[in-house]
């Protein structure tokens, strides 16, 4: 086995499989043993990431839950740093499975990855790659089915990188991407610790022209975009077996602060009535920063490389009541929901998701 250090990362194991080519200068770690269990280096990485979980809610977390009244082309390849790797995920073809579960928190990704075993082509090594742009990818098997888990951070830009570049290097043909995160609750009847399976989402964005011209509204609220209905139904049926869950709409926002109606005397955000404006146009159960963008990008894919997407969030803080989930309960719920989502992603039939649809539809170029 040969190792080399390029100053920013280590590639171990030579032909580690899964597209982890050992001749690229990129932040990459591929390590493992032959038994299907994580090697000592894998285990230490997973353990250290798990221990980085946030402590039980403190003042900062409680601020997240402050009541609303409180001040407070295939034809046009992606840019690549080398001939084989996409720019932001840092992955070559073959590194991803056709089923992908995404999370914001790298510790949550490590927790979920602890349930995986290596693919045969990885020769006993769980594929792990950390890119220089903040993405960590695990690829392995769950219930003998290939799956990738990717942590991405937060926000729409990171989702755009993830979805487009995953589609570029994932196996040809239809794929699944499910997002799993945390959210604020917008209904007093949905307690903290509940998992919301997103049926559709609206996009809430700050309208900068309003501050420039004084015209229009401070925030734009889009029409809803639906999740894939068959995939969503399958997710719901799996999660409800182990955890409290509801089907609900999401309000996806462009920021954590102004467009989520958090007030700050240092900024002119004009958002004191924003929640009521959203509720007049939609019926959101939760509020977060990614679901809309995943669903919107997935519905715009076409042809044989179509993406089916869904989203699930755990309510950690209720914006109406001010209730915050207790840390131990949150960890328990995250674990149960995470395993249920792994089962959902790996248990769904890719063909059934598009049953009755023509995957050749939309293949032609608009400009033709």
UniProtKB/TrEMBL annotation:
Signal peptide: none annotated. GO terms for cellular component: cytosol. Pfam families: PNP_UDP_1. GO terms for molecular function: uridine phosphorylase activity. Residues 9-21 have a biased composition (Gly residues). Residues 1-89 are annotated as: Disordered. Residues 100-318 form the Nucleoside phosphorylase domain. One of its GO terms (biological process) is uridine catabolic process. Transmembrane segments: none annotated. PANTHER family: URIDINE PHOSPHORYLASE. This is Nucleoside phosphorylase domain-containing protein. It comes from Triparma verrucosa. The lineage of its organism: Eukaryota, Sar, Stramenopiles, Ochrophyta, Bolidophyceae.
């Amino acid at each position: 086995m040969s190792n080399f250090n390029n100053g920013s990362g280590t590639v171990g194991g030579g032909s580690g499989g899964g597209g982890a080519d050992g001749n690229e200068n990129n932040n990459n770690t591929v390590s493992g043993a032959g038994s299907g269990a994580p090697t000592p280096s894998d285990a230490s990485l997973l353990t250290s990431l798990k221990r980085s979980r946030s402590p039980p809610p403190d003042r900062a977390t409680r601020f997240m839950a402050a009541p609303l009244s409180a001040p407070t082309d295939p034809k046009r390849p992606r840019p690549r740093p080398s001939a084989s790797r996409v720019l932001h995920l840092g992955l070559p073809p073959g590194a991803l499975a056709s089923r992908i579960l995404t999370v914001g928190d790298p510790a949550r990704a490590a927790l979920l990855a602890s349930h995986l075993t290596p693919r045969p082509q990885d020769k006993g090594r769980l594929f792990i790659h950390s890119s220089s742009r903040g993405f960590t990818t695990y690829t392995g098997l769950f219930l003998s089915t290939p799956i990738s888990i990717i942590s991405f951070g937060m926000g729409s830009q990171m989702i755009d990188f993830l979805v487009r570049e995953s589609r570029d290097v994932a196996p040809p043909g239809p794929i699944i991407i499910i997002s799993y995160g945390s959210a604020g609750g917008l209904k007093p009847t949905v307690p903290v610790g509940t998992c919301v399976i997103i049926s559709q989402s609206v996009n809430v964005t700050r309208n900068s022209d309003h501050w420039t011209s004084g015209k229009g509204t401070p925030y734009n609220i889009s029409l809803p975009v639906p999740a894939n209905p068959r995939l969503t139904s399958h997710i719901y049926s799996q999660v409800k077996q182990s955890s409290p869950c509801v089907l609900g709409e999401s309000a996806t926002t462009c920021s954590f602060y102004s467009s989520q109606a958090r007030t700050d005397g240092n900024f002119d955000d004009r958002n004191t009535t924003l929640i009521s404006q959203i509720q007049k146009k939609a019926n959101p159960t939760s509020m977060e920063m990614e679901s809309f963008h995943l669903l919107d990008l997935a519905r715009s894919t076409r042809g044989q490389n179509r993406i089916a997407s869904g989203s699930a969030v755990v309510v950690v803080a209720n914006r109406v009541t001010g209730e915050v989930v207790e840390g131990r309960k949150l960890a328990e719920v995250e674990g149960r929901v995470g395993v249920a989502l792994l089962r959902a992603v790996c248990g769904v039939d890719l063909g059934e998701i598009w049953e009755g649809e023509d995957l050749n539809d939309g293949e032609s170029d608009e400009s033709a």
